[in-house]
Design brief:
This protein is an alpha/beta fold. Helices cover 47% and strands 15% of the residues.
Length: 247
């Protein structure tokens, strides 16, 4: 499978949100919240954007404290720990402010403990530097963050990632698969994956293995009958391909 980032509809929705944040009126309202179910490509999309823009991408940890967060941020920015801990924030201000480095925090739910102390620390940093911050969480993250007015008032845009559309699946198969995947098989992949990008990618890998084994350059639905394409993680059983389209 090709190593390539596919710009599906969620990516376009995310980029529109970024543009809105960049064009915001209030300088301090420079945060974006990305929500959605697991497997819809939130982390992959924002990670790709971070790599392109030079943003710092951090995954929140259960044991994070403001001090732990600041030290991890400094490490990612290549800032040597100062002799006195109180000087760390000043160094972060200088680096982030001068270079205007956006900060991404994935799994933001872990940063809400102790009355969202970590995000309060982030707020201090972004308020003073006027740099954007991107928070990534599950669907419930918006409700949890809304309980903290000082935090939620900084969020200029909320973007909810949706399941991949049939067009998204077709585009992904075309751009990533090293064998041609017929339209009827793309439709079956969309049906079985329910638009979850993780399952879609696994399905493409399965199709490629079948093509390699059979010496095929194109694979259609009929070629995959009886084979496991994806797995139903809730029922804990594989999903085999059927020409009737049944599960």
């Amino acid at each position: 499978m090709r190593k390539h980032f596919v710009k599906v509809s969620n990516y376009k929705r995310f980029r529109a949100g970024i543009t809105a944040v960049e064009n915001r009126g209030a300088a301090e309202a420079g945060w974006m919240l990305i929500t959605g179910e697991a497997g819809h490509g939130k982390s992959a999309t924002v990670d790709n954007w971070a790599a392109e823009t030079g943003a710092v991408y951090l995954r929140a940890k259960v044991e994070w404290t403001p001090s732990y967060f600041f030290h991890e941020l400094a490490q990612r920015l290549g800032i040597d720990p100062p002799r006195f801990p109180k000087d760390l924030f000043s160094r972060l201000l200088a680096t982030v402010g001068q270079q205007q480095i956006p900060i991404v925090i994935d799994e933001v739910e872990h940063a809400l403990r102790d009355n969202a102390a970590v995000l309060e620390g982030l707020r201090d940093l972004t308020d003073l530097t006027e740099t954007p911050a991107i928070l990534i969480g599950m669907e419930q993250a918006q409700t949890k963050i809304s309980r903290h007015l000082q935090i939620s008032s900084r969020i200029a845009q909320v973007v909810t990632f949706q399941p991949a559309t049939p067009d998204d699946v077709r585009l992904t198969c075309t751009e990533l698969s090293e064998v041609a995947i017929a339209d009827d098989l793309c439709a079956e992949i969309h049906r079985q994956s329910a638009g979850r990008m993780r399952e879609l990618l696994n399905a493409i890998a399965t199709v490629e293995r079948t093509a390699l084994r059979n010496g095929q350059k194109q694979v259609a639905l009929a070629d995959m009958v009886g084979q496991v394409l994806t797995h139903d993680w809730q029922a804990r059983r594989p999903r085999a391909v059927k020409l009737t389209g049944g599960r």
